[in-house]
Model the fold of this input.
Amino acid sequence: MNIFILVVKGFIIGIGKVIPGVSGAMLAMSLGLYEQCLDAITHIFQNFKKNMILLSSLGFGIFLAIVLGSKIIAFLLVRCYLPTILLFIGLILGGLIPFYKNVTKYPKKLSNLILFFLCFMIVIALSFVNQNSKFSFQTMNSSWLYFIMGMIDAATMVIPGISGTAIFMMLGLYESVLLLFANLDSVENIIHHINILIPFGIGLGIGVLLVSAIMSYLLKNKKELVNYGILGFQIAALLVIFLETLNRSYGIVEIIIGCILLLFGIKIARYLE
Done:
């Protein structure tokens, strides 16, 4: 695959870490990269050059999205919330529609439907999390705290439909994560916060390897069941994002532009598959 296209896809996935309620893994699935990335991470030495090109290109795009895109997206969410959110809903829908068609071809076993409903309800429950709730993590040694934050971030990156924003809000760590990402905009800031970035990075790396291995195993051995679970995560996450847009009022021009961008997002996702 063209490296430039991979960087663009990585940028889109990285933006999923900035948009409230959006899952980067869900965007990776929408762009047709999810299982490919899991396989590259868990079997990196089997085709090292190919896997490294894939992961480094995506990683570079994700890094650019976090460092550069966070400020742009934050600005757009304030100035033109609806068009921005509808664009990302379109990107998600573009990949979700064919995924939904493939999953619903499987037999509708009771176990599949139960997992679908359970995963759906997990995301719905997380959407009602109180932003001010705090766990005892705050009393831990800071190095261990950032290590655990890295592990949690890894899980939300790999499991489609789980929003890292919601998880960190539930744990009372959202502001800490935002501060951490904000300090990646220069070499000087990175060096200054190296004591935070090292334990976070170690936790992130270990978490990605561990959760990727688990998801890869499940997809190979319980693919039908897991895909129903992923579908539950995705539909619920999409519903939560859409319902969030109904809490605001919009002008007719903003609605029209938003609808155009929704269709544009679907087209982009289908084109980038």
Remarks:
- Confidence is low (pLDDT under 50) at residues 130-140.
- Residues 3-271 form one domain.
